[in-house]
């Protein structure tokens, strides 16, 4: 989604090249959308997608029309409405991603992430058709990426299992991790995160516990096990583009102390 005077990403052409659609005005003040190729996307093309030889299955991603003075995007996944009311627009932006507003986050270097004052319940629906196409193409390398992540984790496990101030999480033989994150428990976590940052290594707690968010505080409980690990947990770098040399540098830096 975007503001009424902005644009949005779409993939309306067979070559799957990402286009940026901008709102512009004609001399008669009629609003319409234009791609970088100069093709209008309005009611005429909505009714006649073959007029410019645009494949219908691609055209479905980039059909826009004006309804009751409000812009409406017709999408193969859903209808997305652009409110003229800025308060509604801001609320929608927050609710797209867990109720978190990007411009309300405050960087906390001792945590390696940004705190966020969540006042609304949101979902995880910030992805769009562009993300979907990237994801589909990424599946071609999925097995290779998973193997690389496993290699890095095995290196971490082997080298850090006896490091003073580090505790590795328990692993069960009857289950297998998806290896999205590599979390450890570390003494003096704030010092650890800052020291790693000074060495060019990004670490992060990634998520804060839910009951510190304003909207959930009234439901906070004792949670002794969570309290036991919450101030010690931190995630080390883990990515398919990392090399084993990168992992070795991280391990060496950790063993150097903090």
UniProtKB/TrEMBL annotation:
Gene3D superfamilies assigned: Aspartate Aminotransferase, domain 1
Source lineage: unclassified sequences, metagenomes, ecological metagenomes
Species for this entry: marine sediment metagenome
GO biological process: polysaccharide biosynthetic process
InterPro entries the record matches: DegT/StrS_aminotransferase (IPR000653), PyrdxlP-dep_Trfase (IPR015424), PyrdxlP-dep_Trfase_small (IPR015422)
Protein name: DegT/DnrJ/EryC1/StrS aminotransferase family protein
GO molecular function, one term: transaminase activity
One Pfam family hit: DegT_DnrJ_EryC1
């Amino acid at each position: 989604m975007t503001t009424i005077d902005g644009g949005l990403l779409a993939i309306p052409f067979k070559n799957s090249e990402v286009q940026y659609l901008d709102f512009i005005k004609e001399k008669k003040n009629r609003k319409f959308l234009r791609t970088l190729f100069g093709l209008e996307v309005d009611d005429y093309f909505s009714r006649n997608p073959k007029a410019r030889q645009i494949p219908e299955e691609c055209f479905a991603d980039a059909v826009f029309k004006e309804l009751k003075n409000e812009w409406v995007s017709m999408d193969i996944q859903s209808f997305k409405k652009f409110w003229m009311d800025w308060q509604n627009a801001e609320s929608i932006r927050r609710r797209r991603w867990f109720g978190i507003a990007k411009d309300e986050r405050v960087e906390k270097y001792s945590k390696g992430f940004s705190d966020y004052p969540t006042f609304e319940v949101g979902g995880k629906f910030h992805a769009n058709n562009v993300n979907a196409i990237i994801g589909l193409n990424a599946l071609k390398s999925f097995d290779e990426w998973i193997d690389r992540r496993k290699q890095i984790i095995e290196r971490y496990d082997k080298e850090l299992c006896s490091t003073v101030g580090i505790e590795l999480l328990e692993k069960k033989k009857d289950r297998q991790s998806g290896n999205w994150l590599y979390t450890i428990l570390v003494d003096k976590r704030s010092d650890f995160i800052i020291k790693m940052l000074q060495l060019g290594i990004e670490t992060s707690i990634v998520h804060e516990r839910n009951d510190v968010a304003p909207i959930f505080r009234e439901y906070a409980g004792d949670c002794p096990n969570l309290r036991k690990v919450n101030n010690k947990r931190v995630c080390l770098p883990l990515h398919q583009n990392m090399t084993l040399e990168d992992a070795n540098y991280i391990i060496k830096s950790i063993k150097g102390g903090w």
